[in-house]
Design brief:
The complex is a heterodimer. In chain A, the strands form four sheets. In chain A, strands 1-5-10-11-12-13 form a six-stranded mixed sheet. Chain A is built from six helices and 13 strands. Chain A is globular. Chain A is an alpha/beta fold. Chain A has one domain (8-248): Glutaconate Coenzyme A-transferase, CATH 3.40.1080.10. Chain A has helices spanning 8-17, 33-44, 81-89, 129-135, 209-214, 234-243; strands spanning 27-30, 52-53, 58-60, 75-78, 93-97, 101-102, 108-109, 112-113, 121-122, 138-142, 182-184, 187-190, 199-203. The longest helix of chain A is centred in the N-terminal third of the chain and has 12 residues, at 33-44. In chain A, strand 6 (101-102) and strand 7 (108-109) form a beta hairpin. Chain B is globular, with a radius of gyration of 19 Å. In chain B, strands 1, 2, 3, 4, 8, 9, 10 and 11 form an eight-stranded mixed sheet that branches. In chain B, strands 5-7-6 form a three-stranded antiparallel sheet, covered by helices on one side. Chain B is built from eleven helices and eleven strands. By secondary structure, chain B is of the alpha/beta class. Classes of the chains: A alpha/beta, B alpha/beta.
């Protein structure tokens, strides 16, 4: 087998694209460079029906490369925010976003670190996270898997809802709540464990379960057999290069390490 | 007796600011760095107004009012400069506990404005369940479906506004408006949620020049909702008013950097806030430079 030289960012893009594999014709949204390249790759390879936008308000027939101009691609539809909300309340969307914290319930935070009234660090605000989280599937990306990101206890301010029955009327977790994938610089995870526990689905090359667990503030479920996250193939790498001609993907993971340690 | 309605609604920016009062709840149209009524915001920052409740899909509008100490309460889902995701003036004020907040989901804000627009006290929603948003006192009320499902909902209270401030591309003196940018955002709901709506327009033109038969899809709201119109060429700068002009990223950087210290803010304020619109325009590079700004990459 010939060795393919690729970066960890490229491996993550290919792993993250899997989030949309079985979604069919819905709105696919990737916020931030790697999720955005990932949703574009999903559309160009196994799910051409995905509807994706230029990041502003146009649906385009082909993905807009990172840093590209929407005038250079074919526009096929209109996506003003009003329509984004209407569509997401109907459930026909799958977003991948990159919050600052996540906890054992899959709850995430982009609002504040510290006290809400007078935060140690004020960030964006909850944005669309509360509504998104209970209406359509949401996957997540973390460039630095550590215990500051995957916190013990609950996140400082719960912006996206998770599998925490205490936070719902009658303790009923909504059936629309889905967290298909959590992709980090160490592993691919989900919440398919016992009682919605977070579970390791695959480990990136050279990463051990112990390393992931040590960098997570709560216990992870350990399946008996954990596969290694597959390396990208040549076709995927070529598509990624075309989707990110300026190499923004190189700036996301600290030091832009190779996929294989 | 019905009061005669004035059909020449032209005003100056300062006359619009003169309609505002301390303690008012003011909704600001646009979204983050797009089509914000910045000339009006700068005029408010210069005024003696205080204790405002601001409702906004926030960008530098919120940042400037925060830095100028005008905000008593902020109703928001985010405050962002898009390309510079974190709004540093907002962050400084928030971290100093300078004002109270009602933090919403983007769609919940829409819902609250819609409730006010429909003159309903609330609208039911599932948004907020499972999160800390619904632990705020304003969102503590629940309502049960009267139908067989019996489902429990969050009661999103109406976001009633005293005034809405919007920036549009074209208007006539009667208050007919055109918003030519590709996304109208929620400006229509802001106007319907408000007792009075004042707009700044890139150009105030004769009614015929609106060419309404061809442009009707850009007609945000009927003129009965519009109480005053002020011409403000480049009135959204440094935010975008595409297709007339784009976002000024360099200026936004300058503005963001002015949050670094009290001295930096004082310098920005002196050059860009405590000046009239002509001086602002000159300091911002002048009309040709603004018209030459390239389309931002998202």
């Amino acid at each position: 087998m010939s060795e393919i030289s690729c970066s960890l960012a490229e491996l993550i893009i290919v792993a993250a694209a899997e989030a949309w594999r079985h979604d069919g014709e819905i709105m696919g949204t990737g916020i931030g460079p790697l999720p955005r390249i990932a949703v574009s790759l999903a559309k160009q390879t196994f799910n051409p029906a995905l509807a994706i936008t230029d990041g502003e308000c146009w649906y385009t027939t082909q993905p807009l490369p990172v840093g590209g101009n929407v005038d250079d691609v074919e526009v096929e539809g209109w996506s003003p925010y009003d329509r984004v909300f209407s569509g997401l309340w109907g459930g026909k969307r799958h977003a991948m976003v990159a919050p600052v914290q996540m906890d054992r319930f899959g709850q995430s935070n982009i609002s504040v670190i510290g006290d809400h009234a007078k935060p140690k660090a004020a960030m964006l605000g909850a944005r669309g996270f509360p509504g998104n989280s209970i209406h359509h599937p949401n996957s997540f990306f973390f460039p630095a898997h550590n215990t500051r990101a995957f916190v013990s206890g609950e996140v400082d301010y719960v912006c996206s809802a998770g599998f925490n029955p205490q936070r719902y009327p009658g303790g009923r977790i909504p059936s629309e709540l889905k967290i298909p994938l959590v992709v980090t610089n160490l592993a691919v995870l989900d919440f398919g464990g016992k009682g919605n526990a977070m579970r390791v689905r695959s480990l990136h090359p050279g990463v051990s379960f112990e390393e992931v667990q040590d960098n997570t503030g709560f216990p992870l479920e350990r399946p008996e057999h954990i596969p290694t996250t597959p390396l990208p193939n040549a076709e995927q790498l070529a598509l990624i290069a075309a989707l990110d001609p300026k190499g923004v993907r190189k700036t996301v993971i600290k030091g832009d390490p190779p996929a294989q340690r | 007796m019905v009061q005669a309605t004035k059909l020449d609604k032209r005003m100056t920016i300062d006359e619009i600011v003169g309609k505002l009062r301390d303690g008012m709840t003011i909704g600001i149209g646009g979204w983050a760095t797009r089509r914000k009524p910045m000339a009006l915001i700068r005029a408010i920052a210069r005024s003696s107004l205080k204790d405002l409740t601001i409702v906004s899909y926030g960008g530098p509008d919120v940042g400037i009012l925060a830095a100028a100490g005008k905000i008593k309460k902020l109703v928001f889902a985010f405050v962002s400069l898009d390309h510079y995701p974190l709004e540093p003036h907002f962050r400084n004020a928030r971290q100093a506990g300078a004002f109270s907040v009602l933090e919403l989901d983007e769609g919940l804000m829409h819902w609250g404005l819609r409730a006010a627009a429909m003159r309903l006290p609330f609208l039911p929603t599932r948004v907020g369940f499972g999160t800390d948003i619904v632990n705020q006192p304003e969102l503590s009320k629940r309502v049960e479906s009267p139908f067989e499902d019996g489902e429990e909902f969050v009661a999103m209270p109406a976001l009633k506004l005293d005034v809405a401030l919007l920036h549009v591309h074209r208007a006539d003196q009667r208050g007919n408006v055109l918003t030519l940018s590709p996304d109208p955002f929620f400006d229509e709901l802001f106007s319907r949620a408000a007792d009075a709506t004042y707009v700044t327009a890139e150009q105030v033109v004769p009614t015929a020049a609106l060419d309404m038969r061809n442009n009707f899809r850009y007609n945000l709201v009927e003129r009965a909702m519009i109480n005053g119109v002020a011409e403000a060429r480049f009135g959204a700068h440094p935010t975008s008013a595409a297709p007339d002009y784009h976002l000024d990223l360099k200026h936004l950087k300058l503005y963001a950097d002015s949050a670094a210290s009290a001295e930096a803010w004082a310098a920005y304020r002196q050059t860009f806030l405590d000046v009239d619109d002509a001086a602002y325009l000159a300091a911002a590079g002048g009309p040709d430079a603004i018209l030459a700004l390239s389309k931002p990459i998202y």
